[in-house]
Amino acid sequence: MITSLPVRIICGALGLFLLGVAIYSGFEGTEAPDRNVTLTLLFVTAWLGFPVLEVLIGNLFPAFNPWNAVAAPVGWAWRKVTGAAPRHLQYPASLGRWPAAIALFLFVWMELVYGEGSGVAVGVSPESVAQAAVFYSIYTLVMVGLFGRETWFRNGEVFSVYFGMFGTLGKFEVRGRELGIRRFLSGASSWVAGIHGSVALVICSIGTTTFDGASEGVFKNGIQWLIDRCADIGLNPTASVRTSMTIFMLLSIAIVALVYLAGVRGMSTVPGAPDRWTLWRTFAHALIPIAFAYLLAHYFSLFFFQEQAQFTYLLSDPLGTGTTDLFGTASYGVDYNAISNQLVWYVQVGALVCGHVAGLVLAHDRAITIWKDYRIAARSQYWMLAVMVAFTCFGLFLLSVSNQ
After folding, report:
1. CB 370 within 8 A of CB 271
2. Which residues is 181 bridged to in the sheet?
């Protein structure tokens, strides 16, 4: 069972080992991003793989959390030596999940924006990612030391919070040290729970994925125009690219926030509605399935093809130097004919439709708890239906443009 101590120790050790492999490969391996295991392991296998597992099963990341694998034994040793639990600072309630939301933005910014201006032909360099991983690991362990493991992983550590957000959609949940079963999607209803920064994190998730799709499509000309204007005022090429893409990344997040705000303002006009701030927080959990739908729709083909690389030539030659062949698969390649473009499109459309239907279900369930009259509750959801339709149409539009 995933909650038992031996399993947690094994999973934690595996997570720590893989993080170490990614860091070592980043420093010692080739600078070619497509041949070095670092980028695929962190940005594809972990970043995209865990949300899928979380939705299908439940929140598995705590068992594999590499920083918990370091902090837990240290805390245990401290209690054995001193006879008391470590003393930590009181975590400010007003800080909430804002550290995780900001870290989410920076993580995606590094992949999409910093990489574009890094001078590397494809993506950010493995060494830069390794440096960032070391910095983030030190930062995380310091924060754990200040505020405690449970507090920081619940609020500030971006991967724990981000993966945990998707884990609320899954069937399984950990109750103390026991594994429980719940209704699918039901865990999402309590995820926001009035915690500051929660709404910002889910909106940032949708907005950053939107930017990734739009930057090669609907935003492409605008980004290039802004790059030229930045060059006109004297910025160097790298600064021009990063400044322009950062602005459009923030614009993408703002668009998502404005669409949701329009739905909130509409619901506030329904008789018996609470204030807009309460509605803003109360219905934000309905955006979680949309965040997952956007993630799956946009990155499905990347995940499918890169996992072929992950478990063939990258596994055998993680440094990408051509000097090792640990499992005899270093000469393998990616089979881009393994799935058709038509199947990819069906998966993308299916993900968007299912995600938005799930969002509507969550929003409707919440509306019934606010408006006791089911007719008024249904009326309030016309606005959320408009929000979901807007997100669906925008997502399909981005996919159609990027597939041209």
Report:
1. no
2. 172
